[in-house]
Amino acid sequence: xxxxxxxxxxxxxxxxxxxxxxxxxxxxxxxxxxxxxxxxxxxxxxxxxxxxxxxxxxxxxxxxxxxxxxxxxxxxxxxxxxxxxxxxxxxxxxxxxxxxxxxxxxxxxxxxxxxxxxxxxxxxxxxxxxxxxxxxxxxxxxxxxxxxxxxxxxxxxxxxxxxxxxxxxxxxxxxxxxxxxxxxxxxxxxxxxxxxxxxxxxxxxxxxxxxxxxxxxxxxxxxxxxxxxxxxxxxxxxxxxxxxxxxxxxxxxxxxxx
Length: 258
Description:
Blueprint: H1 2-31, E1 48-53, H2 59-64, H3 93-108, E2 116-125, E3 135-146, E4 149-160, E5 165-175, H4 194-212, E6 218-224, E7 227-234, E8 237-244, E9 251-252
Antiparallel strand pairs: 1-5, 2-3, 2-6, 3-4, 4-5, 6-7, 7-8, 8-9
């Protein structure tokens, strides 16, 4: 009887090991690289960075007229640049991407056509007229061969019409995980814009939520590989959120905000 019991314990132990070890390996591969930390593109991880001043009142019309000389050195003297009130920018996603395309070529002497979107983020204060965004952040990435080793490289463009400025960063290299590599967004297949997401949110609880706090909030509309998410933030509290599929427009509201 004791022999059978020991045999049963041995079998259970072996099965447990067979389950635990692969799980541990998968978790390590997902979160880790050679250094044990999975790297992501983020401001501060770039080798090269810069900033330019823009005129938010004229830059879009200038670009539409074929002018690419729309970026100027940053002037340190206070009060020389135009500053808009938060919530007053009429710029939509297409406006931010138009400026980002021109800045991308201006800085790196190539177009972003062969790059994927790692993600985009658009912020705006709740007060003011809709549907413009106060700030836009776009991150691109692609796979490169670095001394015979495949790695990711990324570039970021940040656009601040309310501060009359744009910033850029690039030049970093990031290890490719063995499993679960970066899943970018194909810009050619993107069917739902940040403008669409904001409109959906406003029509399905967002407007009501912001009015409850007298518009003392900010919306954060972010695109990643899993789709769009919009948050209405009142300080450290989220007062409303919605997830939206970037290809179909189907949305889901967490039960806490229904």
